[in-house]
Specification:
single chain; 4 helices; 40% strand; globular
């Protein structure tokens, strides 16, 4: 079975057979209702969020809480009649603080009273512009996170991170993460044009990709109340979740314009 077919089959099966996960109907920023699947894995202290956009783009966000690593995998479909590959997978690996998402333990305990409800987030966290300047090889990235090799195995030449994130992980782990291969051109190079503004088809250019996570549990809500009428002590208790939206604008270089499917 081809990769695209495997991915779509997996996504469909996940929606019907997912155990210990939430399947949420979410209205995105364009007013379109999409499904999100969020699953917590207590054994490896991680959370995985998946969603499929109306144009069939698949987005997977994986949070490795132990290593403070976020992996965002994007699968885009191309048009072969226009000289594009049938699909393209790009992975972005960056540092994330654990308090930006609720813990896997709290996530595993969430339940929906009305699964058919269409939800919108309570807070927009903002737009995060991330210019990546390093390319990493998924099979050789276990010192960053063991999850990269599984989520980005098909993106062996399109998995990116930043030097600043490598330095952050080094300071957290106390051990030196090995140096990784620089991309052909640093994204900060002023002479490199955006792919959408590049006339020459076979010239290096900067590809920009917007990834929106329209709904995710970003914090727990705590309420205060008297445990009983006879006591004057006020105690706090968990009474729900706070939900957020976050937008990432990733910028990375490609060898030619056809490799930047996101500009379509």
């Amino acid at each position: 079975m081809k990769l695209v077919e495997r991915v779509f089959t997996y996504f469909i099966c996940l929606n019907f057979m997912c155990v210990n996960c939430l399947i949420i109907n979410v209205k995105n920023q364009n007013g379109i209702v999409i499904k999100e699947t969020i699953k917590a894995n207590l054994s490896d202290d991680s959370i995985t969020l998946e969603l499929q956009l109306p144009d069939s783009t698949l987005i997977t966000q994986h949070i490795d809480f132990t290593k403070e690593v976020q992996i965002i995998q994007v699968l885009l479909l191309g048009e072969e009649e226009r000289g594009q590959k049938p699909f393209q997978i790009v992975c972005f690996v960056n540092h994330i603080y654990p308090n930006e998402f609720i813990s896997p333990d709290a996530m595993a305990k969430l339940r929906q009273k009305n699964p058919s409800t269409i939800r919108t987030s309570e807070e927009f966290k903002g737009i995060f512009n991330i210019s990546v300047d390093l390319k990493i090889k998924p099979r050789e990235s276990h010192d960053i996170s063991s999850h990269i090799s599984s989520f980005c195995s098909e993106a062996h030449d399109s998995t990116f991170t930043r030097k600043v994130d490598i330095e952050k992980w080094n300071s957290l782990s106390g051990s030196l993460i090995k140096q990784y291969e620089h991309t052909d051109h640093k994204v900060s190079k002023p002479t490199l044009k955006l792919c959408r503004d590049t006339v020459k088809m076979w010239t290096h250019c900067l590809c920009t990709m917007e990834v929106v996570i329209p709904w995710y549990p970003c914090a727990l809500k705590f309420c205060k109340d008297h445990p009983n009428k006879k006591s004057t002590t006020i105690e706090s208790y968990r009474c729900g979740i706070h939900t957020c939206t976050k937008t990432f604008n990733f910028m990375y270089n490609v060898k030619h314009k056809l490799q930047c499917l996101s500009i379509e």
